[in-house]
């Protein structure tokens, strides 16, 4: 009951701060774009004439429907892994440190609830707010495109799941930094750092040999395996959408491990902190 | 070993903070041992920065002790279950402004483990009691300081706790609201609720509490029953029409004599001297106007304790 109350309260705060409605508005606009502006006339079963806002796409030539749907879904998935993640971290970083405000935290801690439950409740609440919006966008686009083309690409749902997972890992970073510093700005910066450094480290097998010193090469390799693999997860979602096999599950489990360590460290720091 | 019946019990409770750059130690709370018995109205007093709020935070496990221990209802206060029977109103609270009055009460009561139906009923009842029924659906951001204070008190009372810990409960409340809060607390006391009041308003503590502790520099300087602490030594006797001859004889018995508008006020050092003085006054034909035991105000005690340290 207490965890549910904490989750519900986070949703309430996101409603009041217009974060939830901002996300919902953007997602709805995108869904409506596909619903109203995108016109697909199936001509030869697997091929179609496509218009956007009445303008012909591909100079009026027929396009392969399956390829087009994969392209659109891939675009949406790429959006989720880039702008979507950046916006989500920005929104989440504002929701976490408010709990630690003087005058508010004392009352929360005076209740018969363990500190870990208080923090996990907030974590799940913020994750719920962002996941609800991501899933709304994904399901909306998936349903519109599916209804218009008859192609139901389940891989897109898996890609959305991966985006939510990537956010959950980064949220654990936000949580730890917020507990240690009570600063939304610093928490955002650190989470952005992990997103930005991820595509660089994904090229570790090309970057590492550029260093002359062995320790530098080992550091690059080490950072790649330790840090969350946001870029690799995005790449994984692209391969899933294209029905292609991906190299392995390592980016998934190592990122999960990183997130778990961050969350554990956040809970430990919170349990020891004086307010 | 006999079990303590105390609702709040601390033993050598201490909290020391280390200064960031110099590394020096600040002893915010420095070995406080206190006991608060069931049904008491306990006032915690002290000058600014004496460690009152840190002591309350230690009781509620908001800060962790450097040394010593604290128990609520016999349980280690670090155990979340120890805090279940406690209602708390913090000083300088900042309630979430996105919640309405009703939602705020509902949320904090949910954290205290109250079932939803009970929460709804109790919130409506308390909002009515603190005069905020018409504001139940309005966001807290629109509330005045006094209204927030009353809402905070309602929050502390939601789960009908047998112990209330109130940090400056009437801060920012107008005199009428202050009276309402005092009446509400008095009613709760009659019902057996133990009240731990942390306040800098001496008159408020003096009117309401029966036990007090004055802390200074993180230590208990004085603690005990209010009546004992404010009890002075001796008696004051006022009489009219005291003849000059009797006044000379009374001079030997009284510690001091002062005359105002024909009424002479004697201060006798003890009961025997007071009785002897009264006999003498009667014999001389003087009329006794009043006999009172000499008492100090809480303010006198407070100033004495605080200035005594300087």
Fold and architecture overview:
- The complex is a heterodimer of chains A (275) and B (310).
- Chain A is mainly α and 275 residues long.
- Chain A contains eleven helices and four strands, in the order ααββββααααααααα.
- In chain A, strands 1, 2, 3 and 4 form a four-stranded antiparallel sheet that branches.
- In chain A, strand 1 and strand 2 form a beta hairpin.
- In chain A, helix 3 runs antiparallel to helix 10 and helix 6 packs across helix 7.
- The mean pLDDT of chain A is 90.
- With 310 residues, chain B is α/β, with parallel strands linked by helices.
- Helices cover 34% and strands 30% of the residues of chain B.
- Chain B is built from ten helices and 14 strands.
- A six-stranded mixed sheet of chain B has the order 6-7-8-3-9-10, with helices on both faces. A four-stranded antiparallel sheet of chain B has the order 2-1-4-5. A four-stranded antiparallel sheet of chain B has the order 12-13-11-14.
- In chain B, strand 9 and strand 10 form a beta hairpin.
- In chain B, helix 2 packs across helix 3 and helix 3 packs across helix 4.
- The longest helix of chain B is centred in the middle third of the chain and has 16 residues.
- Chain B is elongated, with a radius of gyration of 25 Å.
- The mean pLDDT of chain B is 91.
- Chains A and B meet through helix 1 and helix 4 of A and helix 2 of B.
Q: What are the key terms here?
A:
heterodimer, A: 275 residues, mainly alpha, 4-stranded antiparallel beta sheet, 11 helices, 4 strands, globular, B: 310 residues, alpha/beta, 6-stranded mixed beta sheet, 10 helices, elongated
Sheet with the most strands, sense and barrel status of chain B:
6 strands, mixed
Low-confidence stretches of chain B: none
Count the strands of chain B?
14
Helix content of chain A: over 70%
Mean pLDDT over the residues of chain A:
90
Largest sheet of chain A: 4 strands, antiparallel
The count of helical stretches of chain B stands at 10
What's the rounded overall pLDDT mean of chain B?
91
- How much is the radius of gyration of chain B in Å? 25 Å
Helix-strand makeup class of chain A: mainly alpha
Tell me the distance between the termini of chain B.
41 Å
- Helix fraction of chain B, binned, reads 25-40%
